[in-house]
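Standup notes
- DV: blocked on the single-chain target, sequence here:
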Amino acid sequence: MTAILIYGATGYTGTLLAEHALVQGLRPILAGRDPDKLRPLADRLGLDWRAAPLDAPDRLRDALAGVAAVIHAAGPFSRTARPMAEACLAARTHYVDITGEIDVLESLAARDADAQAAGIVLLPAAGFDVVPSDCLAAHVAGRLPGATNLRISIGGFGGFSRGTARTMVEGIAWGTRVRRAGRIVELPSPPRGSADFGRGPRRTVGLGWGDVSSAWYSTRVPNIEVFFEALPAMSAAAGLPAGFRRIIAGGTVQRLINRGIDRLPEGPSAAARATARSTFLAEAWDENGRRAASRMETPEGYTLTVLTALEVARRVAAGGIPAGFHTPVTAFGADFILGFPNVVRMDL
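- DV (later): unblocked, structure below
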C-alpha cells in the first residue's frame, strides 16, 4: 500500500502539489469535500479522486482505504487537522500536513502514543515554514551542545495564498508566543529585533509560529523565539493591542475579513514563485555566552512546500520511519533540507 492522497487538492497549494507530483512520476489520489471542484481537476490531470467532507468521519475514513499516506493541505489546520488525524488513526494511514500553527503541532504531539499504537506516523509542518527552519535550528543546536536559547529569523516572501492569509488572520488572537524554560507562553507585546539575512541588518518582529513547537521537539533547547522580517502589514498586525486582537479574532469579524480574502489573488504567480527567495537565520547561545549562528537561503515558500511535502509523504509511505509523532528533523535529520535544489546553508 503505497498510494498517497492529497486532501485539499483544489486549493492553491493542493493543486501545486498535485501538478508537481505528476512531474515526479507520482500519481496521487486527489481528495476534498467538493466533488464539483475535484472532478475537473482530476480530469485535467488524469488522476483518481475521492470526495469526503471532514465533518463526516465514516466517509473520510472510507476515502483513506488503500492509502499509505495523506498530505493534508486544507487549512486553517486549527479546524481541519483533528478530524483528518482521527481518520488516519482509525484507517492506519500516515498523516502529513503543511501547517505552521503552534497549537496544531502541540495537539498532534499529544497523540504520539496513539500513533504508535496504530502503527502510523504523525508528521505535521512538512512545508514552508517549518522544514527549513527546523533543519537549520537543529544544525545550529548541534554546533553548540548545551545551548539554552534559540532564535529563528525568517525573511523574504513572494506572497501568500488565501489559505495562508486566513491562517495568519486567525492567529492574531494569540499574540506572540515563545517558549520559555520548555513551556509555551504569550508575551504582553511583540518583541522587536533585527537580523542580517545576508544583505545587512533588517528589522524583525516576533511572531508566534510553528517553530516554537517543532524546534523544541527537534532540539530540546528550552528557550525559543521566532522573528519575521518586519513587512508593514505583518508588523502592524503583531503590534495591535491585545483587546483589539481578540475583537478581530471573533467569529463575525473573521467572516468579514475572510470575505475580503476571497477577493485576493489565489496565490503568488508562477513568475513570482520562480524569482523569489527566502532566507533563514538561526542563532543559538548558552549561559556562558558562547554563540553559534547559521544562515540558509531557499526557494520561495510555496515552491519549497511542494518539494518538501511530497518527499516527506513519499518517504513516510515507503515505511521505515518509527511510528509516532515526528518533526521533519526527528524523522529525517538536520541535513534533510540540503537534499532539495537551490538550498544553500552557511555557518557564520
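- Follow-up: The first helix runs from residue 12 to 23.
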